[in-house]
Amino acid sequence: MRRRNAILAGILVVALAPAQARTAPFSVVEASIPQMRAALAGRRVTSRELVLQYLARIAAYEDRLHAAITVNPHALEEADALDRARARGKILGPLHGIPIAVKDNIQTTDMRTTGGALAFEHLAPPYEATLVKHLRAAGAIIIAKTQMTELANWVAGPPTPMPGNYNSVNGFGYNPYDPRRDPRDGIYDGRPVLPTGGSSSGIGTAANFWAANVGTETSGSILNPSNWTMLVGIKPTVGRVSRTGVIPITADQDTPGPMAKSVTDAAILLGVLEGAPDPYDPATSNCLPPPRNDYTQFLRADSLKGARIGSPRAFFYTAVAAPGDPAVRGGLNPDQLQAMEDAIRVMKSLGATIVDPADIPSVIDPDRDANFLLWGICGQGGEARGEDGHCSIAFKYGMKRDFNAWLSSLGDRAPVKSLTELRQWNLGHEAGGTLKYGQLLLDLSDEMDLARDRARYEADQAKDIRLSATHGIDEVMKRERLDALLFPAQTGANIAARARYPSVIVPFAQVANAPAPPFPEGFDPKRAPFGVTFTGMACSEPRLIGLAYSFEQTTRRRVPPSLP
Question: Does 362 participate in catalysis according to the annotation?
Answer without folding.
Answer: no
